[in-house]
Design a protein that fits this description.
CATH topology: Rossmann fold
Number of helices: 4
Strand content: 15-25%
Number of strands: 5
Strand order of the largest sheet: 2-3-4-1-5
Oligomer: single chain
Radius of gyration: 14 Å
CATH superfamily: P-loop containing nucleotide triphosphate hydrolases
Largest sheet: 5 strands, parallel
Helix content: 25-40%
Order of helices and strands: HEHEHEHEE
CATH class: Alpha Beta
CATH architecture: 3-Layer(aba) Sandwich
């Protein structure tokens, strides 16, 4: 595997004790999903990928309460076999531009700190007007513009 700058940024993010959810944005088809899933396999005991384009029904996970425990309960109900261990699981929300409520939930997931969370979306598809509440300071961003 070719090392990419983004991978080093992900390692740096993981080592931060005061970590918040991370948003990785970039153009379509530059390898965001691939590098994040590789990072997850190599650095976590468990990881769960929720791809809102591949599985649109996953949007229902974020239709109710957006508190961390409510989200985790919904993931457990909708994704059989999901291993959700505090401090050992990475939750990867892919194509997040398709689920405005998931983007809003990043703030609350960050505040709880129970799970590491990375969200990824295309610069072409993210429409912040659709997000009910989104605080930029709560979610650091990495721009993946490397191929």
């Amino acid at each position: 595997m070719l090392k990419r700058k983004i991978y080093d940024e992900l390692i740096k993010w993981k080592s931060n004790d005061d970590k918040r959810c991370l948003m990785v944005k970039g153009a379509r088809q530059v390898g965001k999903t691939y590098i994040i899933e590789t990072f997850a396999r190599e650095n976590y005991e468990h990881h769960i990928t929720i791809n809102f384009v591949q599985n649109p029904a996953y949007k229902m996970i974020f239709d109710g309460d957006l508190e961390t425990e409510a989200i985790i309960k919904q993931i457990s109900l909708r994704i059989p076999g999901a291993n959700l261990n505090r401090g050992k699981t990475l939750l990867f929300l892919d194509e997040i531009q398709e689920c405005p409520n998931a983007r809003t939930a990043l703030k609350f997931l960050s505040q709880s700190g129970d799970y590491d969370v990375i969200a990824s979306g295309s610069l072409l598809g993210i429409n912040y007007k659709d997000v009910p509440s989104y605080i930029y300071g709560d979610v650091p961003m990495i721009f993946d513009d490397t191929a």
